[in-house]
Structure formats: structure tokens, C-alpha cells
Amino acid sequence: MSSGSSKLEQESNEILPFEMKHLPDFVQKKLEKELKETPEKRRKSLLELKNMLDEEEFTGGIHFHEDFLTQYLRRTKYDTQKAFCYLRSLLLLRKKEKTLYDGIPDEFFLTKDSLKCFLLLPKRCPEGCTVIIFQYGKYNPNELPVEAFKQTIMMLFMQILRDPMTQINGFKFIHDFQGTTLLHLRQCTPSNLYLFYHSAIHCFPGRYKEIHIINESSLVKPCWTIIKAFLSEKIRNRVYFHSSTEKLFDYFPRSILPTEYGGDLKENNVEDWLRKANADHKHHGVAGQPNYF
């Protein structure tokens, strides 16, 4: 997205909070026009997807929550075959890596400062996207084991995708590598990098609108070399490397970014969201969970 198109969108919609209980009119229109969802289309596609899952050996007999299935239909713009493939990939990975989806002990939120590396912003982009900043320098692998880090990532994605606004409008990510060291690089094994790639691209029903890289360190180049080989051209074209944080304002309103990046946001009223989501995650079985609204 160019800065011009971003600014045009910023003028067309108001700034909305992350936590919402309804779909605004412009999002409802996007759902119908861009994602091709109507009540009748949803009903027919859910029935078709359920039948496909019933015929699959290891998913037959599982009573999937309709909200969970709808996440995948929205992700694929109601292509039931693609939705089935995404969901099948998730369930196969879940079968192979069972502990990956357990969440983390609640006390970690009181004792592990590393969890502050996940920064969910309390305001959305004007087009409704959810914004997450990953501050990798705040993650200490000696404090929080890499397995717990991976469990937190899985929990974060699966819980945040229960939000219909995020399902429809997608994510924008800012990856901040300030303060990363060789200790962080050692965690970036090919298997770990592939796990994150495979989960995000082939398993989770997320829509990834923009990915921003700031404060590059020696960690970035080797990781990007590995990951970009797997990415489609569409996704690669949505990755932006910035020489300064000021460049972020070509894509984000100043009002939604924290003051540490030159923005106006001083307080984050959703900083406890991750802990609450982790508590909810114990109810996220293979059948999924209902939406937040």
C-alpha cells in the first residue's frame, strides 16, 4: 500500500477501538462485497464445509463451532475447498504438536517480563485492521523458554481471530528488532521459522494486510532470507523495511501508535487482554470457540 492510498483510507473512516461489540456499516459492506458473505451464502457454505469435514477420517464426528468454521470461510472468501484445506492443515499440526496449543501458565504474566514483547494496540487502523507490535528485544529466551514463546504466539492468533472485526479487516504487524542479540538469533532455527510461517500462512485464517520491519539488527537478514523463499509474491509485496520509525506514519495515523515510536498513544487500556485471552484459551479445543460477538 502506498502512503497516498493509506492517507485516502484514513480520511474515509474514523479511528475505532480494538475492543468492539458490533460491526460498523463500512465493515458490514466489506463483508458482503469483498468477502462475499450473505446470510444465505453463509448457511449453504457452512453446510458444505461440515459435510466435507464429516467425510474426512480424522475430523468426522467432531462438532465444529459454526463461528470457528466461519473464520475459515471469510479467510478464503467463501471458497469451501480452500477453507477445508486451511482447517485440515491446522488440525494436522495440532495433532502433531499437541502441547503447542496449551497456552501458558497464568503466573507467567506476573513473573515473566518477556511477555511484554507482545504489544496489542488499543486502536485500530482507519480501515479496521488490528495492529500488533512485536518488540523482540524485550523477549529473554533465558527467562521464557522458546516453547512457551511459541505457545503464546499460537494462543494470541487463535484468540484474536475470535474477533469478527479482525476476521474481516485483517492484521497489520510491526516487527521491532531493537535490542535483539545473538541469543535471539539462536532461537531462529529453520524449524521454528517454518513453524511460524506454516501456522500463519497455511493454518490460521488471518488476513495479513501489511508487515512492517523497523530497527533492523543482524537478526533480520538471515531470518528474512529463509522466510521469503516460502512467501508468495502477494505477501512479499506487503512487507516493508523502514530505515526510521518516522516512515511508519506513511501507513499509520500518529494517533494510534505509542509515543515511543513518535505517536500520540500514551496509555494502553488493552494491555491485560493477552492474559484474559490465555485464560479463555483453555476452552479452545479442536472444535473451536464462539466469536467474541
TrEMBL record:
MF GO annotations: phosphatidylinositol bisphosphate binding
Pfam entry (one): CRAL_TRIO
Domain CRAL-TRIO intervals: 126-269
PROSITE patterns linked to this entry: CRAL_TRIO
Gene Ontology CC, one term: membrane
Designated name of the protein: Clavesin-2
Lineage: Eukaryota, Metazoa, Ecdysozoa, Arthropoda, Chelicerata
